Amino acid sequence: MQHTSWHWRLFKGICLALISLFFLFPILWVLLMSFQTNEDILRVPPSPFFTPTLDNYRALIAGELTGAGSTLKIAYMKNIWNSFVLSACSVLLSLLLGVPAAYAFARYRFRLGENIAFTLLSFRFAPPLLVLLPLLLYFQDLGLYDTYFGLIWVYQLITLPLILWIVRGYFEDVSPDIEHAYRIDGHSWLRSFLKIAVPLARPGIAAAALLAFIFAWNNFVFALILGSSDVQPVTVGALAFITASGIQYGQIAAGLVLSVIPTFVLALVMQRYLVEGLSLGAVKG
Amino acid sequence: MSFLILDRLTKSFGALKIFDGLSLSVNRGETVAICSPSGSGKTLLLRLIAGIYEPDAGEIVIDGRPVTGLAPDARGIGMAFQNFALYPHLSAFENIASPLRARSVAAPEIERRVRRVAEILKIGHVLQHLPRELSNGQKQRTALARAIVADARLLLLDDPLRNVDAKLRYEMRQELPRVLREFEATVLYVTQDFREAMALGQRIGVLCDGGFVQVDRPQRIYSDPSTIEVARLFGDPTINLYDSQLADGVVSLLGLGLALPGCAGAARRPCRVAVRPEHVQIAVNGEAGERAGLPVTIEAVTPLNQNAVLLLHTAAGDELLATTTLQRAEALACGPREAVALVRPEHLLLFDRATGARIRTD
Amino acid sequence: MTTQDMTQAAALPARRRSGRMRALLPYLLSLPALVVTIGILIPFGTAVYYSLQRYNLAFPFTRGFIGLDNYAQFVTDPAFWNTVQISLLYTVVTVGVELALGLSMALLLQHRTPVNNLLSVLLILPLMTAPAIAALMWKLMTNPNFGVFSYLVGLAGFTEFRWASSPSTALFTVVLVDVWVYTPFMMILLLAGLRSLPRQPFEAAELDGVPASFVFFRITLPMLTPYIITASLFRMLDAIQQFDIIYAMTQGGPGDRLMVFQVQAYLEAFTFTNIGRSAAFLMVLWAITFILSNLFIKQWLKLRERTHRAA
Fold first, then answer.
1. Backbone angles phi, psi at B214, to 5 degrees
2. Which residues from C are below 8 Å from B65, CB to CB?
């Protein structure tokens, strides 16, 4: 580039610094708040200098939050556990259902398959409430309301299309001759699927599973409508306890921090798979 | 009894009919080279036999057992693909061992047999490498080793030398018959290269327009082609071919009348006449003597292997190719450009102008 | 019977089974996906049916089929037009800002230096935050009593800046949160797009001494257009049906200031128990997303084909 003069570089540096500040400051500030006492938080002007305390986290883990003069029993850790169960089981189920289907859609050109794939994809982008409203009434009749099973089933709406479409692209990239060769060697279809097709599509499966987990973890509206406190994930639980009166702000901040740790860790560890997942495999990471 | 029988196979993709009643039988232990212009379905034929595709009609019998409808793993076939189709995530050793693992062979026996094949094919030193770490030649040998390691009754080799360099191709062409003999396999060998077919095939099948137009020993395919396509496919430089007339047992080659005693009584008919370049003799400075020949001018002399190719023009402007020895060519290149082309009637090949089928002249 | 006949007879049942299995395999493999699809289509059909009914849980006896009346009422219903207006405004502003900001960030981070690599990883973090959680984080920071942002704008002289609680700044606040969460999405897709562009045009332009602005508008931008369109359509699909951020922040308030489609439909169904009207709202939204998603899928397939061909 010709514009490598010092003031151009300085301008770029300032822009980057401001952008980083905007996107990272909220995370940093909430992290700091989570180690503060209520007095530290309410101090004016707000200050990044204080004596850190782990009390907020201790209270959250114990499930006994300090209210206005009393102690509130809020099982926030249970919400986090629910998020784990719902996200992990949804992704596992989607992998179990979606990887074979993705293989079928990639390898066999059949009308029904194409229709299923497109219907699932287009409903991935349809307003979730549209399906959730009638489902709520069905679920209450079927006894699926407020159950893990019911929610995991509905979470397939988010996770299955992702896995189907991303993994399908990867199966399409595997030369069919490699599988043919394996069949001719004398291996059954199942073995060629498990030993050749799946291992060769593994990066795509990892990308899809990672993204599906993050989407499931971050989902809010499904459980808001189809679950009550017993199975509610952390997104819904956080909103419930933030609106409960008199809770200490440091405890809220600690709760928010705990809720984002899993997705942050996943994103940092598996960063190279993120791009391909986010674009449904349309852009290489 | 034939080991492999293809009985009236038919296969279409949509409106495109690839095979129409294709038949072939191959004897036990025999190597048949399948040679044809590209796009005539050689690869598809191997895939039908392997069970990757199913024929629309017809039957495939391997060693007395009809296999149509059987899955590929139930057919006991070894196959080497043109694009190698190695398993990219497995070492060369595991690639080769794959058919043995499928047959639940014990580990020490697998080790022994993979090593043996690898030694024969000279890839013993790269067995621990992944396919992407192998050279093209090593990939090709690995693919070949995988095809033969389990003593498959039938080997299908799909142009295995296509994607390797010329030197290696030449080496393998010498080596392959020995390897195949050692494993006593019945082999179908697909290739686009007629020399490869002639070098490797005990018989050659020429695939054209949905079926085999000729299946015969290499020498017969060359000297006695049954159609124009066969004649054109085999031979380098390609055969000289002209429109002509057959009347009263005389055929005209660019205006030179040649008598064919075998066709004396036949009715007048349009035909095409062909003569191989090596059967065109060049006479200069009256060497022709009394014999009737075609006056030509020598336009170009091009060396080709141990021979030279002469490009000749007739007065009417038609082109004719002739081959001759290098010494003779050198002499001709220094001499006069005017010459006479001599052709003996028994070297002429006649074909029907409409169908391309051979017209027998003897 | 000869030996050959016997082997032939023995082979027959197996052969037939194998042939039938082969034809059935794709259907067997996609059966679970089919079941899930049907599981979506049934409630979808039910929702369509609801939208054609007078159906209020508070008045069960008045339930009945009324054709397109729910939709017809929208024509003269200011609440409906308010929803349309707010949703479209929200979509256009968020996607517009995110595109501009995301593209600038992608351009700034284009070259693979250690600092840029680190930043491009860290800047993904807002996207990894659940939108509902992000809204709560911003709510904490814009709290009038102790929020650090409230304090900072106070320093700048805006002492009466009420963020999401004031009708005049509520939209600004939720847009800000949306931009915070989703700009990294634009950034990483456009960054990947930028890095996948062929280098020759840029090298040629540099050799010829073409000005940087010309390179950007005549080379970079046109080549990046497929990525921009795909990412923008994807974001528009999300933004027009935004629920989490707005619901967690203000539940559609103050007043009806942030009544976007899904929030409006949620309140119709769960506060006013008017299922029929709620379903009709959602059907209108569905029609919009249907068009957008078809455009998106077409774009995305085109882009995906190119990516996988290049691979």
1. -160, 135
2. 7-8, 11
